[in-house]
Design brief:
There is one protein chain. By secondary structure, this protein is mainly alpha-helical. About 70% of the residues lie in helices and about 0% in strands. It has a single domain, classed as Farnesyl Diphosphate Synthase, CATH 1.10.600.10. Strands 1-2 form a two-stranded antiparallel sheet. It has 16 helices and 2 strands.
Length: about 350
């Protein structure tokens, strides 16, 4: 007997993401088709549409991304009372910027795999990854400036300012690797740039293209920023305690790389003697075996890092929902925005 899997209801997060991919993928493919031959090949591979030999990707033409940021952009347009398609150029733009950052991140971090596939730099070299990323970033602005409306320039400006903020966050993250005295507030500021800025812009850009008022766009931006903070907190928890079969990363991966993530930083500053032991471990040369890594994870937990990060993620998601409460948004759109935010921030760890 054959068992059929029922499609996710359209107002649940999986349903929203499926609907988004169906709408955005053709437009994203059309944008990528503008690139020169080599860059186009690398971008299509990175996006999961093809394999290294040019054959179709395992995920088909929809690729391997979740399409969270494009989903926020489409819902943002709907929040302003416009058809979701008004936000389509914004959805394409934020996905291009996101993938620009991934191409460069893989190179900076020395990661040779993403989603169990070779990264662009690992196969084609560092210059190719840099140029492909730069091309996607330029293409994002081009797509927005092609929109025949007065709002196009404002949306393009939003993307450029957001990219600057994203780069600021990434620069702070790199700088923190060389410092032993990074504070919790500094880490939150870094995450607000590296992760929160693009999620905030995604939640705003559709409404900008729809000509939404300042009060609405500010509320949507605040929603996205708080979801971004919660997302980063949960991502940091998964980086220590996540299931490798779900995260795609080795167990205790962030501790293996001695990353000063938010739970680690909290434990360092608020864990007392436990925090001092954790600091001594971070300062040690290694290498670390499984026992040492599990001891470090226990120190983060004993120092309060795990409980604080989980509680702070819940608090940030509550603030995100509160940001929406003060503005007029269609009820179904509000429901879907909240469902998407919770999907991102309530992952198990």
């Amino acid at each position: 007997m054959t068992t059929l899997t029922r499609p996710a209801p359209p107002d649940t997060a999986p349903g929203i993401l499926r609907r988004t991919r169906e709408l955005v993928t053709p437009a994203l493919q059309a944008a990528v088709a503008r690139l020169d031959g080599d860059t186009r090949i690398q971008a299509r591979y990175h996006l999961g549409w093809t394999e290294l030999d040019g054959s179709p990707g395992a995920g088909g033409e929809k690729g391997g991304g979740k399409a969270v940021r494009p989903a926020l952009a489409l819902l943002s347009a709907s929040a302003a009372g416009a058809p979701a398609t008004v936000g389509l150029p914004g959805a394409v733009a934020v996905e291009l910027v996101h993938n620009f950052s991934l191409l460069h991140d893989d190179l900076m971090d020395g990661d040779t795999e993403r989603r169990h596939r070779r990264t662009v730099w690992a196969h084609w070299g560092a210059p190719a990854a840099i140029l492909s990323g730069d091309a996607l970033l330029a293409l994002a602005v081009e797509v927005l400036l092609d929109v025949p409306s007065p709002e196009a320039a404002e949306a393009a400006r939003l993307i450029t300012v957001t990219t600057r903020d994203l780069i600021r966050g990434q620069a702070l993250d790199i700088a923190f690797e060389q410092r032993a005295d990074v504070g919790v507030e500094e880490c939150l500021v870094m995450a607000a740039g590296k992760t929160g800025a693009l999620l905030a812009a995604s939640a705003e850009i559709g409404a900008v293209l729809a000509g939404g008022g300042r009060e609405l766009t500010a509320a949507l931006r605040a929603f996205g920023a708080e979801v971004g903070a919660a997302f980063q907190l949960v991502d940091d928890l998964l980086g220590i305690w996540g299931d490798p079969s779900v995260t795609g990363k080795p167990v205790l991966s962030d501790l293996r790389s001695r990353k000063k993530s938010l739970p680690v930083t909290y434990a360092l500053h608020h864990g007392g003697s436990t925090g001092r032991e954790l600091a001594a471990w971070l300062a040690s040369p290694g290498p670390d075996g499984e026992a040492e890594l599990r001891r470090a994870a226990a120190l983060v937990e004993q120092g309060g890092g795990r409980d604080w990060a989980a509680a702070e993620a819940r608090r940030r998601m509550a603030l995100a929902e509160k940001a929406l409460a003060g503005v007029e948004v269609p009820a179904n759109v509000r429901t879907e925005l909240v469902a998407l935010g919770r999907y991102l921030t309530e992952r198990e760890f």
